[in-house]
């Protein structure tokens, strides 16, 4: 691999590695894997201090939906900076948070009429879990203390969010600190039998979920899912029929439906919210990431008036919801979110995304025949290529061979930020990407895959 020149890049990388501990990283890797200092961003591109640029194929952890340094969002933030940077959100309110709550209620699935703000995606999941449990407690159903999650799920890295996640590395490490969820088999279509359709997999898994609810509904607060795409679990995808069936089962067995739309909301799956594709509304919808266009941390949990009213009581009843963050409803973050929603309102974002998704599908199609590709799958502006050692048996590459890391390093050398999930090479680019940039992105990835699967 080409080494970075001895320059400002190298100097900044050395300073960073002397004091910073980066997320989701074995820091020792940086003895051989370069640390890339970024000077600025523009559109889909990130620029380092030596003038090299990298196409951000993953929207900087799935947040940056309208491009780096988006001028409309930036202008809204600059205006907000001159009026109010922050105010306590208990007993006080402000224009930006109020306008944002109203805007979210207008565009959300029907019945989601109350908005609770938090700081990030994991915090939103914590809020939804606590709110569901507390709702049942307020109704005298204190026996409901457990949650159902899907196998392969991921909902964040605070302890509550990890408790309803099923990523083996995390659960093995932190198991003594975590709640134990009831795991329902994922409707992941990758696991389908020969000749079985995505919808048939969903129906089969709904039957298994029904069996779980028949045994445990009395102790279950909620079922939590990532609608349509299990992102951190390997970009595994499933049919909308599962969401429709889940809604019906939750109603029948009196448990809540929590939709974690943190990664898949705001147009990523082809509709504004993934739940729309099943025509359902959850009891709680968690939003973050693209909410602010990638500018600032902010999350929101939307829920129903029915849930809200279970907490609305005299002070002495002890029914108030117990959750707060210092930066709840931060005006700067809310203003960035409003500017993001205004782009959706004023531009044909979803229509444009459909054309971009079609281009992405066309460019990825030839990889389906690759001898080390088990599947190419796509839902809207999310696409994934599953690398395997043996195509016929779908035998994966051993994890310790780190084939995905080879794709990442190839991408850096050739101007693309690709960050595979294990042996899954995926694409979640900003919506401002052009067709020509899609061609470039897939071309770099395809060459990186050839490098990765070489002996």
Summarize the structure in words.
The protein has 455 residues and is of the alpha/beta class. It folds into 2 domains: 8-69 and 349-453, Alpha-Beta Complex (Aspartate Aminotransferase, domain 1); 74-346, 3-Layer(aba) Sandwich (Aspartate Aminotransferase, domain 2). Helix content is 37%, strand content 15%. The strands form 4 sheets. It has a 7-stranded mixed β-sheet, sandwiched between helices. Helix 13 packs across helix 14 (435-453). Substrate binds at residues 61, 154, 289, 324, 419.
The largest sheet, given as strand count, sense and whether it forms a barrel, is:
7 strands, mixed
Low-confidence stretches: none
The radius of gyration computed from the alpha-carbon positions, rounded to a whole number of angstroms, is 22 Å
**Tally of helical segments:** 14
Q: Count of DSSP E strands?
A: 16
Strand arrangement across the biggest beta sheet: 4-12-11-10-7-5-6
Shape estimate: globular
CATH homologous superfamily placement of the largest domain: Type I PLP-dependent aspartate aminotransferase-like (Major domain)
Report how far apart the termini are.
17 Å
User: What structural class should be given to the helix and strand makeup?
Assistant: alpha/beta
CATH architecture level-2 label of the largest domain: 3-Layer(aba) Sandwich
Defining traits:
Aspartate Aminotransferase, domain 2; Aspartate Aminotransferase, domain 1; 15% strand; alpha/beta; 2 domains; 14 helices; 37% helix; globular; seven-stranded mixed sheet; 455 residues; four-stranded mixed sheet
């Amino acid at each position: 691999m080409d080494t970075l020149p001895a320059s400002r890049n190298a100097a900044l990388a050395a300073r960073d590695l002397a004091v910073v501990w980066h997320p989701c990283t074995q820091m020792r890797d940086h003895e051989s894997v370069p640390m890339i200092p970024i000077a600025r961003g523009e559109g889909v591109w990130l620029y380092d201090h030596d003038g090299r640029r990298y196409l951000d194929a993953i929207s900087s952890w799935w947040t940056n939906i309208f491009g780096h340094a988006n001028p409309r969002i930036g202008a809204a933030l600059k205006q907000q900076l001159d009026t109010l940077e922050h105010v306590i959100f208990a007993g006080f309110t402000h224009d930006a948070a109020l306008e944002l709550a109203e805007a979210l209620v207008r565009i959300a699935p029907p019945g989601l009429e109350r908005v609770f703000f938090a700081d990030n995606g994991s915090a939103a999941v914590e809020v939804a879990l606590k709110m569901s449990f507390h709702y049942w407690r307020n109704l005298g159903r204190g026996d409901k203390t457990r949650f159902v999650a899907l196998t392969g799920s991921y909902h964040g890295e605070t302890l509550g969010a990890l408790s309803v996640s099923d990523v083996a590395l995390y659960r093995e490490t932190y198991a003594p600190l975590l709640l134990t969820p009831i795991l329902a088999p994922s409707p992941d279509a990758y696991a389908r039998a020969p000749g079985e359709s995505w919808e048939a997999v969903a129906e089969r898994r709904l039957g298994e979920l029904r069996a779980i609810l028949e045994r445990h509904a009395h102790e279950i607060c909620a079922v939590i899912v990532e609608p349509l795409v299990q992102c951190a679990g390997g970009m595994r995808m499933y049919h909308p029929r599962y969401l429709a069936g889940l809604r019906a089962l939750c109603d029948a067995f009196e448990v809540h439906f929590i939709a974690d739309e943190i990664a898949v909301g705001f147009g990523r799956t082809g509709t504004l919210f993934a739940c729309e594709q099943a025509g359902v509304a959850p009891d709680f919808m968690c939003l973050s990431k693209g909410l602010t266009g990638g500018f600032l941390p902010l999350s929101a949990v939307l829920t129903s008036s029915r849930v809200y009213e279970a907490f609305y009581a005299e002070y002495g009843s002890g029914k108030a919801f117990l959750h707060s963050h210092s930066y709840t409803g931060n005006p700067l973050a809310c203003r960035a979110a409003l500017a993001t929603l205004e782009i959706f309102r004023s531009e044909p974002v979803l229509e444009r995304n459909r054309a971009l998704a079609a281009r992405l599908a066309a460019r990825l199609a030839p990889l389906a025949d690759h001898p080390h590709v088990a599947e190419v799958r796509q839902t809207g502006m999310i696409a994934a290529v599953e690398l395997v050692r043996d195509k016929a048996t779908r035998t994966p590459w051993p994890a310790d061979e780190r084939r995905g890391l080879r794709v990442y390093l190839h991408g850096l050398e050739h101007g693309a930020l690709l960050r595979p999930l294990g042996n899954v090479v995926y694409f979640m680019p900003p919506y401002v990407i052009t067709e020509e940039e899609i061609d470039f992105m897939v071309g770099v990835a395809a060459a990186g895959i050839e490098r990765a699967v070489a002996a």
